[in-house]
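Annotated sample (chain length 227).
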Amino acid sequence: MAIWILGTLSEALVVVCIYRRGALRRYFFLSSYMFLSALVSVSRFRVLLHYGGVTSPEYRYFYFYSDAVLTIALFFAVISLFSLVFEEMRIERYLRFAAVLLLAGTAWFSYAIVSQSSARIMTHFAFELSQNLYFVGLALTYVLWGAIVKLRETRTQLIQIVLSLGIYFSAYAATYALSNLAPGLYSYTRFLFPAFGCLLPLTWAYAFWRVPENARLAPARLLEVAQ
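Output written by the structure step:
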């Protein structure tokens, strides 16, 4: 519960920091994702109290459906970072088209996996879509980091945002894999998911609060970070 509260407050703090910097338009999808995540956290808590715990069917349905919505929002937040990195090339239209195509392909793949199930197909679809989009997000983040290194991007704030996103996705993917390979460790790994959920908003809040927007990282230093 303490991790849950910390994560919710951190998500709200990110939105406040972005607003304070006057960067709501520039980081619209990032701030929208954090605002939606904080709103979902509060809603989950209300459902938890109203229906009597995490084992209730109502809470489970709400959790998986809301998680799918949050994952889609995070997916578009990642795509928006591509637009910032490639903004000088003016390829936003192609990025949006590629994002919609990739999202549709992931959704179709997820549905194809669960279409053979006759019971609770929508719940299974929401879970499968979330899991697949996490791995897509992980791959996109590494591609984005490769583009940052290749283009010698030096904006410190943007670099920190992408790095923290890569750590977040990698940690989630590792925890998913560990949970599947060793189900007996679930009593331990179940605490890792909310803990990693706090990691992303805390690092983003620091990036928007403490790192000046015009701060630059020397190209040589960027290569050291990449290695």
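Annotation: The chain has a mean pLDDT of 82.
Annotation: The longest helix spans residues 121-150.
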